[in-house]
Amino acid sequence: MKKRYLYYIPLLLLFIIAAVYQARFTQGRLRYLLNINDRARPPLGTEYTGATITFVNPEAEAAGIHKGDRLLAVDGESYAGRDLLFDKIYDARAGDTLTVRVQHQASEGLPDEDKRIAVRTAAANAPPTVWDWLFVIVLSITTPIFCLLLGFFVVFLRPRDPLAWLLLGLMLSFGQVMLGSDALEWKGVMRDLMIGYQTFFASTWGLWMLLFGIYFPEKLNLDRRLPWLKWLLIVPHLIFIVKDAIVSVGSLINFNAVAPLYHLMRPFNTVKGILVMSSIGIFFAAIGWKMGTASTPDARRRLKLLLWGSQISLGPSFIVFLYSMIRGVPPQQALPVWISLPALLLFLLFPLTFAYVIVVHRAMDLRVVVRQGVQYALAKGGVRALRVILIASLIIASILLADSPRTNRPQKVIVISLSVMFIFLIRQVAERLRVWVDRRFFREAYNSEQILSELSDNVRTMIETKPLLETVAQRISESLHVPRVALLLKEKGAYRTAHALGFAAGEQAVEFPEQAATVTRLRKEHEPLMVYTDDPDSWIHHTPEMDGERALLAKLDTQLLLPLNVKEKLPGFISLGPKQSEEPYSNTDLRLLQSVATQTGLALENSQLTARIASEVAQRERLNREVEIAREVQERLFPQDHPSVMGLDYCGACRPALGVGGDYYDFLLLPNGIFGIAIGDVSGKGISAALLMASLQASLRGQAIQETSDLSELMGNVNRLVYDASASNRYATFFYAQYEPKSRALSYVNAGHNPPMIFRQKQGEWETLRLEEGGCVVGLLPNFPYTQASVTLQPGDLFVGFTDGISEAMNPAEEEWGEDEMMQAAKSYYGMTAADILASLVKDADEFANGAKQHDDMTLIVVRVI
Question: Residue 377 carries which DSSP code?
């Protein structure tokens, strides 16, 4: 509701300006009619943007001033802008003397004359005629006031409706065309403000007519297809409007500053006239087209009334203006007064037609607001209106009194101070009166626009589908008094009822296939669809595929379908039945409901996305837990203790890249003191690699306990077991060795693994043995003839087995640590314990990586021969 009040701030400011202008202008016209004006009339007038005198009244002519002279000064002040002459006349009374300095253009060959002349001013007006009375009362007072009241009344009731603001602009501009301007009703800054206001709206009438014709009561189809086309007229309109405003206000202050712009644009005045006439013609053409293509009798009737009323109002005066342009004389002089005046008086029919169409025939939904909210408007709304009227009246009265030449400075200060004090008192009294009215007469007020607007804002934050559907259905039903509401959502290739109000059990259970004609049309149109079952011209009767769907729509008692579009997707739609009042859905209803549907579609998508994310999070949590369990299981597969082996100091470690991995190492204490050493690397990472690693461990242990010394046969058996237990694209590099402590013989088979290294130092020189003998990786081929090799270890030898996660550790620049760096590091730690050597090598690899993500499992075995 707070957002709604933001619209009233510019509305109130505009109303004050319009009301002050109209009040002062009406006051001046009434003084003229009643012949009680004691002001002086201008003895002369100058051109719009210069000092050349264009007309002289008898009093100026008698004083020796001639048409064509140049006005240089008034009462000793240099004449640079029209404000000076207007201010002097504003302060003067009939019989006062003005001293003017003029430059008279002498005869050829003689110098121009510079004369100072005293002019005695005359009374401002002659007695009015009956025709003057009719013209002023109807066109200068009644028509502008009616336009002002109608425009502000509609916007006050529908401040969020763009059409209401278009109507306000149209009514104010039409009123100013009727009023004209009178610079002598104002003085100083107030004159500049009011002349600017009058010029702006008077010059925008053609533009408002154009826009109203395009957008009322709904956008013209041509504008939907070619939205740029209207700008070919709007842009020239704006250029002329800006020019008129600058020149009219600028000429008051300094006409020399705006003269270049005035003379630049003057040749295009004919273009401006054609532009205005074209815009008015487009208004009639657009309204006529919409009338001929209207889908309902109600819409056709409204447009017909508007079209004929506007034509009758503007047609005769258009003929008068056209004839006056042909003859080159003012409209009031083109024809006899008994012909031209009735034609001009028909102008009043223009705002009357709009009022009749909008208020009586509900073209902008005002009758519903007035009828269903009349008691509330008379009480609570009446208090608010009374408050606005009193405040506006005080402001207008203050401006008029403060601007009056009969009021001195202390009186002006007192008037303004009292006005401010009364405004605050009115606010306090009105607020107490409003609270009393609420408690005495009302508990809640009917305001569907407020409810639907708030609903449109609220659904954005709703992330649960069921409460979202319940809220939308309930609030739409309450705000528009629609008993039957059904929301259908897409599920498993069809649109099924997800929530419904006002139906008996099972009555709302319907299903629309994804390719149904109704669904296709909703997805294509992106707009609310009216369903007229009793109208043979309705789309539901002209779509062959609708034969089976009309029964479904009848079952839902559908009168309006709202698509919940999200870009090109249609997650669902809303079916609304008839209103309890049996009134049709209005344009405002459709606009608000479409906003609600759009926000509901977005909220629904967010809700479904949130549900999917929650499901994925829960699934990920389960997966993480499963990975954690797998990691714990895999850790149990690695050696848990290190039995003592004569003559050896050994250690091993594995660090997976993803919690669990495919690297494998093992230490086996076999019968007869034989010590088994194994290290392997399964292709891939994660769970699948860990499962194959477990299969490899089981296969090795199953073969090793058979006390065989033929390691090539053992490796062949392991290969077949892994091959049978894994997919065709799964394999493992594998190294297995057996150490005999008494002979210190190390027998081994290397199945495609990174060759372990034995570092041996002799007389200060390093010897490195690579254990490469063996064959192909295990699990890739069903059979392979592996070979066995043997090496005798010596005291001081250092055995290092590793996977490529160690040697190929990468830094942020994607550079590898490399085997050479690893070998140098291992040699540098010679003499340390196996555990310390292992920790130091891992530390060096991590330091080289420099915080880069670990890209592969890292496994390391270190064995020292003591």
Answer: I
Task: With both helix axes pointing from N to C terminus, report the angle between 2-34 and 382-403 in degrees, rounded to the nearest 10.
Answer: 50
DSSP class of 229? T
The CA distance from 331 to 177, in Å, is: 14
Distance CA 743, CA 793 (A): 9
Whole-angstrom CA distances from 749 to 80, 602, 787, 792 are 110, 64, 7, 15
Torsion angles phi and psi, residue 496, rounded to 5 = -120, 155
Sign for the CA dihedral angle at 318, 323, 329, 332 comes to negative
Q: What percent of the chain has pLDDT over 90?
A: 26
Question: Environment class of residue 61 by beta-carbon count within 10 Å: exposed (0-12), middle (13-18) or buried (19+)?
Answer: middle
Bridge partners of residue 98, in order along the sequence:
119
Lookup: tokens for 833: 């314990």
Please give the Cα distance from 532 to 549 (Å, whole number): 14
Q: b vs e for 688-709, b when ≥16 Cβ sit within 10 Å of the residue's Cβ? A: bbbbbbbbbbebbeebbeeeee
pLDDT at 419: 62
Q: What is the pLDDT of residue 405?
A: 57
Token pair of 350 as six digits: 């223009």
* Alpha-carbon gap, residue 599 to 593, rounded angstroms: 10
pLDDT at res. 195? 87
Question: Which residues are CB-neighbours of 118 under 8 A, at least 6 positions away?
Answer: 63, 97, 98, 99, 100
Report DSSP state, residue 565: -
The rounded distance, in Å, linking the Cα atoms of 582 and 635 is: 74
- pTM assigned to the model: 0.49
Please give the structure tokens belonging to residue 18.
């319009």
Q: What's the pLDDT tens digit per position in 554-609?
A: 888 889 999 988 777 888 999 999 887 667 787 778 887 888 888 878 777 777 77
Is 42's pLDDT higher than 60?
yes
Q: Which amino acid is at 694?
A: A
Beta bridge partners of 497: 488
SS3 855: coil
Q: Torsion angle, CA of 775/778/783/788, rounded to 10 degrees? A: 40
Instruction: Write down the mean pLDDT value for the chain.
Output: 82
Q: What is the pLDDT of residue 311?
A: 87
**pLDDT of 183:** 76
Residue corresponding to tokens 């201008």:
42
Of 212-221, 303-312, 375-384, 593-602, the least confident: 375-384
Residue 776 per-residue DSSP state? S
Let me know: does 86 contact 183? Beta carbons within 8 Å.
yes
Q: Are 100 and 46 in contact (CB under 8 A)?
A: no
pLDDT-derived band at 371, boundaries 50, 70, 90? very low
**For range 133-162, the mean pLDDT:** 85
Tell me the per-residue pLDDT of 713-755, one tens digit each, with 9 for 90 and over.
Answer: 999 999 999 998 888 888 999 999 999 999 999 999 999 999 9
Closest CA to 556 of 598, 497, 596: 497
- 642: pLDDT confidence band, cut at 50, 70 and 90? confident
Q: 752: which 2 tokens?
A: 């495609």
Q: Would the CA dihedral through 129, 130, 132, 133 be positive or negative?
A: positive
* Tokens 């009093």, residue located: 59
pLDDT given at position 858 = 93
Q: What is the DSSP letter of 446?
A: -
Tokens 């540098």 locate to 828
Q: Report the pLDDT value the prediction gives residue 374, as an integer from 0 to 100.
A: 40
Task: Evaluate whether 741 touches 645 at the Cβ level (below 8 Å).
Answer: yes
Long-range contact list for 623-629, CB < 8 A, 24+ apart? 627/658, 627/659, 627/660, 627/687, 628/659
pLDDT at 404: 55
Domains and CATH numbers, the chain: 2-33+128-372 (1.20.1070), 38-120 (2.30.42.10), 448-610 (3.30.450.40), 641-865 (3.60.40.10)
